[in-house]
Amino acid sequence: MFFSLLVLLVSSQLVHSENKYTVTGDGDYSxxxxxxxxxDDFEINMPSCGKEIEQMDVQxxxxxxxxxxxxxxxxxxxxxxxxxxxxxxLEEVRYGVLEGDLNNTATSISHQYNWNEQPDGxxxxxxxxxxxALMVNLVPGAIHFYQIFSNGQQSDVIRFxxxxxxGSDAPVSFxxxxxxxxxxxxxxxxxxxxxRARDQDFHGLIHCGDISYANKFNGSRGHYATQxxxxxxxxxxxxxxxxxxxxxxxxxxxxxxxxxxxxxxxxYRKRFIMPGNERYYNFGVGMVHFIAVSTDESIDSSSTQxxxxxxxxxxxxxxRETWPWVVVFQHRPIYNSNKNHGNWTGEYYEGExxxxxxxxxxxxxxxxxxxxxxxxxxVHHYERSWPVWERNNTEHSYTDVTKPVHVTCGHAGxxxxxxxxxxxxxxxxxxxxxxxxxxxxxxxxxxxxxxxxLDKNTVRHKMFVMGSSKPKEDVTITKKRSSSxxxxxxxxxxxxxxxxxx
Length: 502
Description:
Oligomer: single chain
Number of helices: 9
Mean pLDDT: 89
Low-confidence stretches: 1-12, 483-502
Strand order of the largest sheet: 18-19-20-21-25-22-26
Distance between the termini: 88 Å
Number of strands: 29
Helix content: 10-25%
Largest sheet: 7 strands, mixed
Structural class: alpha+beta
């Protein structure tokens, strides 16, 4: 038994250098992701994202791969998923606060799926075994280590930072991106984030939909979407997703029946572990409360999502001392100055069922409950709004803001929306004058965004252009603290009574 296990351990290896991940699979199979490649290697020619990276064959890899962790909403927990080409009697994660003493154990459950059945009963694709486990009894805000034992193999020992205690004053840092894929630009943007993650600890990454583009035929694949793209994307982001919570919300390429042929969110749910129903959900990290919403579903007052959304906001607002920052993230933006896609109104294709509540009812709740930031993707560009409500009601300052700031970070990999559709690359998607709500925008650069909540009054937003180690934008947003806590309300009432007596 020991000899058999030893053979398995040396037959499949995962070799990491600083910018190269090599998976040596069973037999002669080897899969390499080189993050030091350049734009020329992928024939990138703005606004085209160039060629895709080589696709990975998951059935050839017995070692744990596509490792990602995710928040549950409880700072003492972290969910984890990984994939192998088979299962064994031992499927577990060992973890702890000391790298040399992984004294806690979480056992995984495993599942597998088939995709696109053929007339003869065979399938175009069969997934690897997808494993899910839950690490519990973490120390909030502390560095932890873990190692996966699965399929007779083991992963490296990996480091991550647990979420701070709810209401903690500790700074909170997140990446946020959208519309990623497995293109050359996707890889280069991922490499940039990997470098940033070596400079500082990030608690997590927010991905605002259109994740892998596994469904989307783009000329480099066959005439059907290939699920291998999910595996390739999962491995490409592993250097990030294995070290910080990778939180996603579905985009039209995961949900919409027209765009996600033969997927319709079923693959999204099999690949990710998110809180709640996984399409819309909420979780807290330190002083920040995040709410994911699904823009391909109704959000009006009579819809399931709309009722849930207002109730969630109401509960958060009852304790803004704990949650001074509220961030909503979604796929489609309601503020967009790029002519391709426009502003989300609930109807993507003429004649399709209208998704109710977008944008009016949704926006009314943002203002009513003091939402601070709204993050989005979908439009393949970058745009940051001024604090805004109802299109033209703007504050041209980020000091003591009273309205939400909207940020679209949809330039993380897919081809940019530089030219208006149907104009044969002759009409720019931007027109002048720039709308009053729009503070900054670019449709010629790929990149990623970062948020750093410094304290309960201050958040810093950065945007990095692909290939640059310094932010192109670095904006500080401050807000006035509300005096809505019971103690503050009591003091205000006492002062009013005293003044009335005087």
